[in-house]
Amino acid sequence: VTYTEQSKSLMLGIPEERIKKAGVVSEETAVMMADALLKLSGSYYALATTGVAGPGPSGGVKQGTVFIALASQGAPVSCVKCLFPGDRLAVKKRAAVRALDMLRRALIGA
Fold it and tell me: Which of 30, 41, 51, 60 is close enough to 69 for a disulfide, judged by CB 3.0 to 4.6 Å?
């Protein structure tokens, strides 16, 4: 889990300047995270999420906004923007379910 800009930079090797420019909660950052994780892990798939679970908005981004990216060997990174209702726990659960569903669909070729 890379929660802060600094941890995204240190653990995933993403330059902090790129994260600041794109915004922590953005499609570009989610894609960079998934791509970096795929390269670092050597796995066939990598999932990344970045968003605002709440409570309340953060940095001008509405609570429930989540970007989910899926990287896989030999394919472009796919990313979706979601707006989940509910409190912090509900947003986190919905984001996890959606991310795992993206992976499931990739695994079955859907």
Answer: 30
- Choose the CATH number for 5-108 among 3.90.950.20, 3.40.50.2000, 3.40.50.1100, 3.10.450.590: 3.90.950.20
Considering the entire predicted model, what is its pTM?
0.95
pLDDT, position 1: 79
Burial 63-97 (b: 16+ CB within 10 A, else e): bbbbbbbbbbeeeebebeebebeeeeeebbebbee
DSSP H or E segment with residue 98 = helix 88-108
Average pLDDT score over residue span 100-110: 94
pLDDT tens for 11-27 read 999 999 999 999 999 99
Q: Quote the CA–CA distance of 24 and 11 in Å, as a whole number.
A: 15
